[in-house]
Amino acid sequence: MKTAWAAASAALILALLAGCGSSAERGEASLEGPEEAVALYKQSCISCHGTDLKGRMGPASDLHDVGARLSEPEITRQIEQGGASMPAFGERLTADEIRVLSGWLSGLGKSE
């Protein structure tokens, strides 16, 4: 009986440890950019735009190359006013927070 208990305990521990690991090992992309911008993104944007910036709400929510499609003022306006299925964040985020996000996002997808 003790052997069965030990085997079951070992299996449980291994199963729990299998869930550990880095975000990259779990298939999550790490976001790169200014710390403040990434923190704001995680707080306000990640639920619709995803951990990999590719969007969870269809092609329009894909941000991985948004800077190649929209200028910084256009991104700012989109964040402030929303549009299509995106809600407005003009009253949820400060002007400085929107500036930080739009500055970072406008650099995504631009050729260097």
Q: Features of this protein?
A:
112 residues; mainly alpha; Cytochrome Bc1 Complex, Chain D, domain 2; 51% helix; globular
Describe this structure in words.
Keywords: Electron transport, Heme, Iron, Metal-binding, Signal, Transport. InterPro entries: Cyt_c-like_dom (IPR009056), Cyt_c-like_dom_sf (IPR036909), Cytochrome_c550/c551-like (IPR051811). By secondary structure, this protein is mainly α. The protein has a domain at 35-112: Cytochrome c-like domain (Cytochrome Bc1 Complex, Chain D, domain 2, Orthogonal Bundle). The protein contains six helices and no strands. The N and C termini lie far apart (65 Å).
Query: Which percent range fits the helix content?
Result: 40-55%
Task: Assign the CATH class of the domain at 35-112.
Answer: Mainly Alpha
What coarse outline follows from CA principal-axis ratios? globular
Q: Count the strands?
A: 0
Structural class: mainly alpha
Mean pLDDT figure: 79
Portion of residues in beta strands equals: under 5%
Largest sheet report: none
H/E topology pattern: HHHHHH
Radius of gyration: 20 Å
Q: Supply the number of helical segments.
A: 6
Oligomer: single chain
Per CATH, the architecture of the domain at 35-112 is Orthogonal Bundle
> What's the CATH H-level homologous superfamily of the domain at 35-112?
Cytochrome c-like domain
Distance between the termini: 65 Å
CATH topology of the domain at 35-112: Cytochrome Bc1 Complex, Chain D, domain 2
Low-confidence stretches: 4-28
